[in-house]
Amino acid sequence: MFIAIIIIQTTIPGIGNIPIGPLSITIIPITIIVAAILLGSKEGSILGLIWGLITFVRAFWWPTSPLAVFVLVNPLISVLPRILVGFVSGIFYHRLINFRINKNLLMVFSGVIGSLVNTILVLSLIYLFYRNNSFNIYHINTSDLLPYLLGIAGTNGLIEAILSGIFVPIIVKPLQKIKK
Predict the structure, then answer these.
(1) Number of Cα atoms under 13 Å in the Cβ half of residue 120
(2) Which residue among 92, 143, 159, 164 is least packed, with the fewest CB closer than 10 Å?
(3) Cβ(69)–Cβ(77) under 8 Å?
(4) 51 contact partners, CB below 8 Å, separation of at least 6
């Protein structure tokens, strides 16, 4: 079921991303994080891999943005961070669940951390691999690339993390009851 949701979110415009003015808020990590909490970090990683592979393939035949053609054709940017969303959020939740931490709060933190893993890794890897080619790709000077990426992290990344922190517990709680 989660694989079908990921395929739908990544292929139908407007379902996996919420356009808000110039921003495009990615909500796909929420699905990965929910799966990692419900099923485990291995399954969350597999779903992240599927999301990453779809992102990678789409960069070649149906890119989501003009920049995708340049940066998302690199599997270290398009695939690795997505795998780690499921892995890190699943490990975080399942390792800390045995401690006396409020489960709702733990879900909130798992959502925020999983979302931030995606944002931080994607933007850091873009900077690492493409900073010397930033003018050709982004039409900005190399010295302006880091502030530009930090601006994305502070807008998109922050909103995505907050949304993940809000919606992960809302989605997980009823599904945990059904799963039992």
Answers:
(1) 10
(2) 143
(3) no
(4) 6, 10, 28, 32, 82
Delimit the domains of the chain by residue range. 2-179
Q: Structure pTM? A: 0.90
The CA distances from residue 40 to 34, 121, 143, in Å, are 9, 21, 41
Note the pLDDT tens digit of each residue in 78-120.
Answer: 999 999 999 999 999 999 988 888 999 999 999 999 999 999 9
The number of beta carbons lying within 10 Å of the beta carbon of residue 167 is 18
Cα torsion 40, 178, 49, 166 to 10°: value is -90
Taking only the tens place, the pLDDT of each residue in 139-158 is 666 677 777 778 888 888 99
